């Protein structure tokens, strides 16, 4: 909170100083009456900058180390954020010096220089906050600069305009109207920049709509958006007043009062911006709390039923309302007898219809619904989760997770089939909630005492890949759509550069799994198949990772897994075939993983002279041309 207050009180005076520098130039006014105020606020900004670096250092430097002058100098000279502060503080001190010089020197060139440097002060306000994060793209970092520059210019100019209106009542109405009109143009440009850059920043810092409500950062951003909307409503009233005024008339008092209301909303918005600039971005949060008992989901409602929603169900009735109510609103607008009420009745009917249609996408949610996992989606995690599932869940859900365990018949509610499509309608947070507190029906018990948090996420990783088994049975040599994320795993690498399967993204990868020297295996045919796969992959320019058990020849080896048994176990879950008994041992399979990280195709065996090698080459060539998509390992 201390950081938030400092950033707020650092930004506000600088913004007001720049606003008071800008406004007189819009109407060629002298602006001498604002010089002392501008000098004061510019100096306050410069002084507060020294307190800010002390607070930043205290927030970053370990608590046991004291923050004295020597420590601050070391911090500013050896860290990126310290060096950024030095630059911003030099600009702020220059602005203060120019503002003070204007008290003694009357010069248009000095005024322009002060305005230019003041604008630079506003632009670099965010440099010591999230904008310094080098994980952001250059485009995103530039968005921070444009956002703060345009936003503070708008807020500072707005405050300055209110100041002018309350202190300039002796000015002719035409002068006030001229200032309002010209400022309105500047404000419109600033707001467009604020909205455009704000969308880019929100995409990086929030990541999803759910995070707006599920994280502290997102909830504060929602309040910020509400204040912004309030400010825009006031701005709309001011714009209408300007457009509808008669020549020679301008209500300075009214304009100042409404402008003051807009300014209050803008200042509140600025304080929240300062607060969230010192907060963890929503996209980086792992402990998410969803405050509503429902969420909106296409997949869990209309998408799940394929538009064939059960008649007379709640979603069906709500969907009907979403269609009928807007039609009723249209009828109320056009029918002659209802025209006296149409300005009220039609908007109410349409709004009710939109609300009804939106509610038809509602499904149950929990505080953990949007929780992020504490462990990655890896083969090693899946192996641990499978072990926990076998120890705790097979009695009800069955070995294959199909809800046919030995205890299932004695239960009042049939255990869920964890391989069925409905699993994909739930978030991983939903599953975590049920594992923690018990299932929806009350039959499934809580496992929070039997499994710690990481164990529960391991089991969820296993359930994610288990739920794909019905669909993955039909995966063949022809590439399917992107839906199945390849479980990640560790690779052997002497240079420790390519140490994960996910590090190979950008180029298609073939994951070959086989068991040599196994009972009943034709070794000659198997080795010929592996050699043909190796030659084809190499010629196509793809990566190859090999998980070979039983002493396969080194000539057919690619990159090796650190934990081959865990990898074989994880991929055996999706290596199912129709009418074949599932097994955890893979005799031979070649999974084609596209450049984004999705499993897209599977080859069972290669014979010299058959078409399979040519198909593999074609699939690799096709996937190499597809666009690269950045995905989450927990996409499901």
Task: Flag low-confidence runs.
Answer: none
Record field, number of beta strands: 8
Helix content: 55-70%
Q: Mean pLDDT, rounded to whole units? A: 88
Question: What proportion of the residues form beta strands (DSSP E)?
Answer: 5-15%
Shape descriptor reads globular
Number of helices: 21
Largest sheet: 6 strands, mixed
- How large is the radius of gyration? 32 Å
Strand order of the largest sheet: 3-8-7-4-5-6
Question: How are helices and strands ordered from N to C?
Answer: HHHHHHHHHHEHHHEHHHHHEEHEEHEEH
Structural class: mainly alpha
Distance between the termini: 37 Å
Can I get a quick summary?
Helix content is about 55%, strand content about 5%. By secondary structure, it is mainly alpha-helical. A hairpin with a 4-residue loop joins strand 7 (about 590-595) and strand 8.
How would you describe the overall organization of this protein?
The protein is mainly alpha-helical. It has 4 domains: 2-212 and 222-279; 302-360, no CATH class; 379-467, Cytochrome c-like domain (Cytochrome Bc1 Complex, Chain D, domain 2); 475-625, Glutaredoxin, CATH 3.40.30. The protein is 56% helix and 6% strand. The chain contains 21 helices and 8 strands. The chain has helices at 2-26, 35-60, 69-78, 80-104, 108-123, 138-167, 173-205, 211-214, 216-244, 252-277, 302-305, 314-334, 342-359, 379-392, 394-397, 428-437, 453-466, 469-472, 523-540, 564-574, 612-625; strands spanning 294-296, 362-364, 484-485, 509-515, 543-549, 559-560, 588-593, 598-603. The strands form 2 sheets. A 6-stranded mixed β-sheet has the order 3-8-7-4-5-6, sandwiched between helices. Strand 4 (509-515), helix 19 (523-540) and strand 5 form a beta-alpha-beta unit. Helix 14 (379-392) packs across helix 20 (564-574). The radius of gyration is 32 Å and the shape is globular. The protein starts with a helix and ends in an 11-residue tail after the last helix. The model has no long low-confidence stretch (mean pLDDT 88).
């Amino acid at each position: 909170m201390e950081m938030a207050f400092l950033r707020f009180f650092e930004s506000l005076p600088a913004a007001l100083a720049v606003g008071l520098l800008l406004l007189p130039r819009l109407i060629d006014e002298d602006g001498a009456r604002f010089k002392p105020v501008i000098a004061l606020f510019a100096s306050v900004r410069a002084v507060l900058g020294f307190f800010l670096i002390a607070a930043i250092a205290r927030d970053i430097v370990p608590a046991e180390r004291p923050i004295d002058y020597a420590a601050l100098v070391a911090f500013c000279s050896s860290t990126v954020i310290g060096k950024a502060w030095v630059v911003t503080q030099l600009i702020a001190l220059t602005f203060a010096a120019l503002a003070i010089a204007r008290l003694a020197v009357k010069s248009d060139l000095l005024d322009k220089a002060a305005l230019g440097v003041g604008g630079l002060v506003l632009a670099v306000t965010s440099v010591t906050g999230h904008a310094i994060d080098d994980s952001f793209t250059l485009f995103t970092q530039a968005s921070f600069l444009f956002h703060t520059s345009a936003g503070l210019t708008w807020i500072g100019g707005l405050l300055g305009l209110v100041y002018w209106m309350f202190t300039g009542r002796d000015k002719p109405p035409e002068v006030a109207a001229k200032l309002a009109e010209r400022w309105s143009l500047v404000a419109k440009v600033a707001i467009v920049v604020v909205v455009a850059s704000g969308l880019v920043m929100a995409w990086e810092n929030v990541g999803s709509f759910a995070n707006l409500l599920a994280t502290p950062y997102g909830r504060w951003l929602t309040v910020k958006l509400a204040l912004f909307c309030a400010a825009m409503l006031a701005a709309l009233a001011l714009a209408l007043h300007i457009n509808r005024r008669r020549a020679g008339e301008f209500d300075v008092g009214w304009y100042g009062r409404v402008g003051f209301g807009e300014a209050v909303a803008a200042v509140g918005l600025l304080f929240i911006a300062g607060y969230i600039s010192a907060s963890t971005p929503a996209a980086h949060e792992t402990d998410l709390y969803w405050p509503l008992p429902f969420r909106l989901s296409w997949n869990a409602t209309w998408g799940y039923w394929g538009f064939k929603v059960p008649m007379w169900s709640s979603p069906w009735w709500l969907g009907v309302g979403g269609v009928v109510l807007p039609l009723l609103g249209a009828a109320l607008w056009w029918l002659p007898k209802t025209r006296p009420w149409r300005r009220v009745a039609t908007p109410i009917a349409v709004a009710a219809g939109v609300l009804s249609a939106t509610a038809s996408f509602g499904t149950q949610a929990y505080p953990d619904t949007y929780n992020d996992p504490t462990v990655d989606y890896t083969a090693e995690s899946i192996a641990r989760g499978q072990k926990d599932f076998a120890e705790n869940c097979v009695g009800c859900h069955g070995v294959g997770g199909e809800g046919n365990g030995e205890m299932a018949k004695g239960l009042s509610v049939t255990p869920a089939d964890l391989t069925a499509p409905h699993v994909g309608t739930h978030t991983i947070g939903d599953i975590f909630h049920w594992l923690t507190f018990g299932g929806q029906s009350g039959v499934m018990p809580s496992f929070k005492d039997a499994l710690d948090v990481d164990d529960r996420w391991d089991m969820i990783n296993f359930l994610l890949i288990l739920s794909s088994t019905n669909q993955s049975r039909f995966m063949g040599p022809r590439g399917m759509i992107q839906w199945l994320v390849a479980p990640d795993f560790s690779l052997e690498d002497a240079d420790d550069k390519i140490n994960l399967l996910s590090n190979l993204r950008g180029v298609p990868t073939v994951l070959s799994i086989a068991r040599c020297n196994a009972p009943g295996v034709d070794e000659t045919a198997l080795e010929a198949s592996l050699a043909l796969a190796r030659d084809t992959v190499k010629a196509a320019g793809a990566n190859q990772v090999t998980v070979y058990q039983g002493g396969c020849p080194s000539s057919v080896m690619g990159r090796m897994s650190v934990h081959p048994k865990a990898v074989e176990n994880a991929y055996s879950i999706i290596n199912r075939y129709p009418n074949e008994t599932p097994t955890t041992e893979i005799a031979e399979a070649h999974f084609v993983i596209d450049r984004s990280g999705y499993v897209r195709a599977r080859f069972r065996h290669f014979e010299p002279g058959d078409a399979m090698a040519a198909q593999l080459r074609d699939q690799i060539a096709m996937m190499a041309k597809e666009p690269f998509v950045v995905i989450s390992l927990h996409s499901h």
